[in-house]
Amino acid sequence: MEYASTLQWRSSKSTQLSCHPSARAAWRCWRDLDRQFELVDNLPPALIALLQSVEPIHVRRSTTNQAKGSFEFFGGFASVALVINGDLDRALFCVHEMPSLEVVANIAEASSLKSLMYSLDRQDGLHSLYKAVGNHFDKSKVRKLFEVGALSLSKLAKFANVGRSQIREKRTGSMETDLTILQAILKEAAQDE
Fold this sequence. Notes:
Elements lengths: L4 E7 L4 E4 L4 H9 L12 H9 L3 E5 L8 E6 L1 H8 L5 E7 L4 H18 L7 H11 L2 H8 L6 H8 L20 H12 L1
Parallel strand pairs: 2-4, 3-5
Antiparallel strand pairs: 1-5, 3-4
Helix pairs in contact: 1-4
């Protein structure tokens, strides 16, 4: 079934967002994921705007709240977080007209998987991907996405083209691990000023 979608810049202050029911599991997965780069308050506004402009918030008009400017989101989770945290005055929305539940679920899972694949926890490395996939995706979805019976550490190592030992959970004791890499870079830059 084909349908239309349009890109629109909207005021994020006058837009009400709630999570689409079919995207809630993917949103929880995205929110709970340990990331190397966190969306934090000390990011420069120009960087936030640039990052958000390449990841629009996928929405449909709310079916439960008929107020103008009320939408249900199901993708572009990083941009959603920026809007919810109040870091954006305006945001880029991809407004879908009557998307099917399958389209909603696919976009939501893609938004979540993007973070799983590209924003791994720096302490945990690929093991964080292994844990997150196991925690947030059922076995049939893992089989479909990774084309395996079950995602094992050996198979993940093969996908990542690394040795299995590089995937095992690693914890270090004395490193300054409370900061993400981006936070450490920003802290260092501030000290240089």
